[in-house]
Design a protein that fits this description.
8 helices; four-stranded antiparallel beta sheet; alpha+beta; 12 strands; elongated; 26% helix
């Protein structure tokens, strides 16, 4: 990918919008793939997460997100508040495609825990499109008995890659955010879905066992309790700054985020400054 990459704060720490009930459509469930496959997210949960995105407060926030072209509210936009309000009124955000679980590389798999899946559900994503063609990914997590929107990010990786995996033969799409890579687990193999993944595992992919060896070598010394953790390097990226104020994009010598277990879906989360992603912009 050639777009500017920005860093996000860990989803579990994100601050945002209240959720409410609304209409839901059928989700795209990940295909079961035997050994190594993550546990599925229930269709009812996906429908509830989608409903949260349809809440009027969230729709209003999305309208302003699109009006500002993803520029955070704490940064200057160069237009007046009245101009922003008019642009927001024209944004007309609408849901597009299925609401899907987003799976992230599991720390227990990295550690080599017997029976651990390659990834675990981290959050749920819904793609939203504006009237002018802008797209955004809306992230939701379970909080108590309901679902809450915790982030709005430009682009649509979180739904596009699962759709690409489904169209290419099924399997479970998952991400290795430390290197900005997206894969699909299919037929006992980890196959690439983007350029970063191809650089990681090659065009033909690798077996699940080979992938475990690969990520163990990359991250086993950075798990909780490691020297890396004790030295305080697990708090996120170091060094470097991008336009817009983000720090430490992938590929600039930034530190690797610490893998933690226990996000809002009971899945893998990243500590501190977070995960490398495609032209991400907090809403």
């Amino acid at each position: 990918m050639t777009e500017i990459r920005r860093n996000l704060c860990r989803v579990a720490a994100a601050t945002v919008l209240a959720a409410a009930l609304g209409l839901a459509t059928a989700p795209l469930a990940p295909a079961a793939d035997g050994v190594g496959a993550p546990r599925p997210v229930a269709a009812a949960d996906l429908a509830a997460a989608r409903s949260a995105v349809q809440a009027p407060a969230v729709q209003g926030r999305l309208s302003h997100f699109f009006a500002r072209k993803g520029v955070p509210p704490n940064q200057s936009l160069g237009i007046t508040a009245a101009d922003e309000a008019r642009a927001a009124a024209r944004a007309a955000p609408r849901l597009s495609g299925a609401t899907v679980p987003v799976y992230t590389l599991d720390a227990a798999f990295v550690q080599g825990t017997a029976g651990a899946p390659v990834a675990r559900p981290d959050f749920v994503a819904s793609k939203v499109v504006a009237g002018d063609g802008q797209t955004a990914s809306v992230w939701t997590v379970r909080q108590g008995s309901g679902w809450r929107v915790v982030n709005i990010a430009s682009g649509g990786d979180e739904t596009d890659y699962p759709a690409r995996a489904a169209a290419g033969g099924g399997g479970t799409a998952f991400r290795e955010p430390q290197v900005n890579a997206w894969y699909v687990l299919r037929g006992g193999r980890v196959l690439p879905l983007d350029d970063e993944a191809r650089r990681s595992v090659g065009a033909a992919g690798v077996s699940l066992a080979e992938y475990r060896t690969l990520v163990h070598r990359r991250y086993a010394d950075k798990l909780p309790g490691s020297g890396y953790d004790r030295a305080g390097e697990g708090g996120g990226y170091r060094l470097g700054a991008e336009p817009g104020g983000s720090t430490g994009p992938a590929g600039t010598g930034a530190g690797v985020p610490l893998l933690l277990a226990g996000s809002a879906l009971g899945a893998t989360a990243l500590a501190g400054a977070g995960l490398a992603a495609r032209r991400r912009a907090r809403g």
